[in-house]
Amino acid sequence: MNDPNGLFYSPTQRLYHLYYQYNPSALVAGNQHWGHATSPDLYHWTNHPIALSPPAPSTYVFSGSAVVDVDNTSGFFDRGHKDGVVAIFTLAEYNPDGTAGPQTQNIAYSKDGGYTFTYWDEGNPVIAGEGGGSSQFRDPKVLWHEPTSSWVAAIAYAQDFVVGIWTSPDLKRWTWASNFTRHGLLGAQWECPNLVRLPVRPGVLPDDDGEDAYVLAISLQPGAPLGGSATQYFPGRFNGTHFEPIDEVTRLTDFGKDNYAAQYFYGLEGEDEALNIGWASNWQYAQDVPTDTEGWRSAMTLPRRSYLANATRMGLVMVDELVDPAPVLDTVLMREEWEGNRSVTVDYAGVESNALYIDVNVTGLDAGKISSSSILRMSFSSLASGETLRAGFYFGGDQPFFVDRGLVRGYDNVFLTDKLSVADVWNTTSGTWRFQGVIDRSIYEVFLEGGVHAGTVLFYPTEPLTVLSLSSSDLPRGTNVSVAVWGLKSTWS
């Protein structure tokens, strides 16, 4: 699997639907279909039969999105039908010699709430692009823009570094409206644009006039700062036809290497309006990681809730907050509090899922007493193999948080950058800092200061990591550390 596609929430079913790029015949990308899974809580997922299969030989179903056509603007559904789903996606054709042919935007509709789809054969493609279809024109993300009563699609002209904005009254007839081009990082190509309205914390936006705030997220690969693939985002304003960024700053969604092409769920409102899930991998090594020995490759990230806020020193930031993991929390393995410095250890060999949730809160921080060696360290180790995944946060100096996967030896790849870091900032007003982390058998996701910074890191040990060690050093008196660790239930049991 790779990119998440067509994420939407069905209020009638009370289910989250997630489609994804899926090759049912090999453990590498190719022969792309849309796989399908649903969840009542974003943690427990049920797999379903393939939702979209290629309609013709040498044609693949690439990325796209799905919407609930509540008002039947498309005319595909019967009167009173409130759960009609329309998917819009790229069909990518390939020539007999294997070279890329045209990529066009097509639609299919579902009358059973998103489980089976019918291609609109008489009208596809609904957007062919210039000259009948470029070979690099893909990944439509569709949303409803209430002020203009129109559908909007953001589509990547991948190797031109352009996101085209298109509008439609009915999901069938589309008109080009504008382009957003050559902002931020270019890499070798742009992919999977996401235009999404975001909740905003009060006092965040300059000259706040009550308009909705939007974020345009663009995935690029190869050419990310750490190599391979990454996602950048631009906060701004959207009037239904044109997107204008608030500033010229380039921001990344993740300081790790392993979160790409995240997509937001359609059909949510209020605090949960912007929930996203990304593909937890990097194209530099995605085709090669060693989980093929278990018959699979790639997974999705944990669910994240996004909003715009002001972060200490950094200013405007899209927070990626971990969605409450309560549905999978199991036994509390440790709950400890102390002042200053201490070391604790948790043996989690008995946790069947081999997965943990860690929540650390540090309070009483005093900038006048903190030194450059004041640190909170944590490591996850295997007693059998001696392998260790390390992480930590320095409270002084440039305040970096780091993850080091270089001591995990189950996979050797020159592009698997082993040391990752970000300059995090604890709250100097309240004197507090918070860490949340989820570690599974081969993935570590961390959330700093409630998601001001998020990091996604893959690792592949030769033996399971089963011991957590956590310590604080050179913290002055008056600094308090609170740690809680839970084992996690298997989401598939």
UniProtKB/TrEMBL annotation:
Domain Glycosyl hydrolase family 32 C-terminal: 371-486
Keyword Ion transport: no
GO cellular component terms, A-Z: fungal-type vacuole
Domain of life of the source: Eukaryota
Domain Glycosyl hydrolase family 32 N-terminal span(s) in chain numbering: 1-310
UniProt GO BP: sucrose catabolic process
Residues spanning the membrane: none
Protein name from the UniProt record: Glycosyl hydrolase family 32 N-terminal domain-containing protein
